[in-house]
Give the backbone structure.
Amino acid sequence: MKAFRIVFCLLLLGFFQQESFAQLTHTGEEGFKEWQKEREEEVLNEDGWLNLAGLEWLSDGEFYLNEKEEKLALETSAESNNLGYFSVGGDSVWFMPSPNIQKKHGLAAKALQYPEENYGELAVEIGKWKWSVIERGGLFGVRVRNLEHPALDAFEGIPVLEYNPEWNISAKFLPRFNQSIPITNVLGQVNEWNVMGVIQFSYQGKEYELITLEEEGKLWVIFSDESNVEATYPSGRYLYVGYPDSKGNLNLDFNYAYNPPCAFTAFATCPIPPPENRLDFSILAGEMLPEVVEGH
C-alpha cells in the first residue's frame, strides 16, 4: 500500500501517467463494445457472479458443510451428505474434507482457505461445488458456487446504453493523503476504505464532487444518481477512473459505469455509495438494470 502511494504521488507530480483498468484499453468510445464483452465474460466466468449459490458466516469452532436439496448448508453436525468441516481459529480458516470425500476426490486431509494472497486461489472444488472463504468486518464467510447454476444458461447479457460522448466529462482530481472513510455494504457491515482524493466536475452549471477510493491500485468511484429509481441498479453503480495528468485533469466517463455484483446475485457484499457520492441528477449512461434468474 505504501509503495503504491509513493508511485501515485510521483504520478501526480507529472513523472509519468497511467490509466485505470476500465480505460487502459477503453478510452472514450473506442473499445466500448469490447468493454461490454469483457464485462459479460467477467460475470459469467468461474469466479464471476452468476454461479454464486450461497454465502454463510462462520464463527469460532467447527462447522460442517452438508449437501441438502441441491444446496450446501453450514451446520453444527455432520449429516449423511457431509462434505467436510471448517475450523476457525484466530485469523485462519481450514477445511477438512470427510474421509470418503477426501478419498473420492483425491484431496489433502487439511486445506487452508484463509488467509489467501489473491481471492479464489485457495478455493476448494468438489463436483459441481466450489467455495472460497472471505473476510468482511472481522467475520469469515463461505462463498459457495454452483458451477452448473441455471443462471449461467439463462443469462442474456447486460443491458447497456449506447455510448454518449456527452457523458464523458472533463474533471479535476484533488488528491487526499492518509485519509479513509467508513463504507457500509448491503449487509450493513462497515469497512474502512482508503480515500485517494476527490473528483470535481460541473454538470448543467452546478459544481459536484465525488470521493474517490482505491480498488486494487486503481481509482474507483461508488456513486448513485436519480436514474437508480427506475432504469439502473437501485443502490448505485461503480466506475473506474483513469489517472489524472500532471495538472490533475482527467475524464469522468460515465459510459463505463457498471453494475455492482449485487445486481446479479444475493450472495455478494457490495459497498453502497457514501452520502457524499449521491448525485441529484439522472445519468442515463453505462450499464442498466439486468434481468437475472428469480431467487438468485
